Amino acid sequence: MLKIAYHPIYKHPLPQGHRFPMEKYELLPKQLLYEGTCKESNFFKPGFPKEDYILSVHEKNYYERLKSLKLDRKEIRKSGFPLSQELVDREQIIADGTIKACQYALEHGIAMNIAGGTHHAYTNRAEAFCLLNDQAIGARYLQNQKLAKQILIVDLDVHQGNGTAEIFQNDPSVFTFSMHGKGNYPFKKESSDLDIELKDGTDDKTYLKKLRSVLPELIEEVKPDFIFYLSGVDILETDKLGRLSCTISGCKARDKFVLNTCYEQGIAVECSMGGGYSKDIRLIIEAHANTYRLAQEIYF
Q1: Beta-carbon contacts of residue 193 (< 8 Å; ≥ 6 apart)
Q2: Which residues make beta-bridge pairs with 246?
Q3: Does the structure show a pLDDT above 60 at 17?
Q4: H or E segment and range at residue 107
Q5: Is the pLDDT of residue 58 over 70?
Q6: What's the pTM?
Q7: 3-299 falls under which CATH superfamily?
Q8: What is the distance between the alpha carbons of residues 263 and 50, in angstroms, rounded to a whole number?
Q9: Domain ranges in the chain?
Q10: Which residues are known to be catalytic?
Q11: CB neighbours (10 Å) of residue 80?
């Protein structure tokens, strides 16, 4: 059975006019239930993870100041969110959702988190709507619990996974692969183990050709026993922050290729949703929903 992490706190309210579309976290599970892709039994409610799991990735000083709401103004501004207890709770619960999704993925081949993909969070700071790096925490959890040795992170959000790159920059047991917009945020990028930079306006054909030429060889080289997939839908041409020119069908073809590759290789995969900022919320929901439809189709 496909297991999906969802908690009502994912839709944490933000001040009116804030550009981050929090409503997608509420609308996406409703859409999956309405159309029959999922049932209530597919969803599980995460809680708070053990602090040791978070501290395996994030510096204690940063985490303690985050928990006690003592980040300074510059740090808060860089996070992109107004700091609150509910927001900190949300970030911890998202991380727990990814940890538990890792466990389900080992059982069923795949598991999902409605939120997550917080790849801009560094070991010691928040950045760009990301306070704690959920997939990095999940990777360390698997390794520390001796559930996986070699991990591959496939980050296909339109923005580079700079925080993830920094966290694992000296760790050969976690291979970081980011394919992202060259001219997009972050403008000062970190070095992933493999970075593929795409020009503004990159279309479906160019995008998919590049991905298909790289991922199978990368898996053969890295030989991962677990994969994290960050399936951001901000590669769409309609995305306000994206700058690429992919279509809904191209985004779906991307997800199908990644999930089929994991399935055929017999490698467990955890999927976190990542970004999506199209003006029309319906396009965001449709693009994200395709990932879940494909997971059901391919694995179950």
Answers
A1: 165, 168, 175, 176, 177
A2: 236
A3: no
A4: helix 85-108
A5: yes
A6: 0.96
A7: Histone deacetylase domain (3.40.800.20)
A8: 30
A9: 3-299
A10: 120
A11: 17
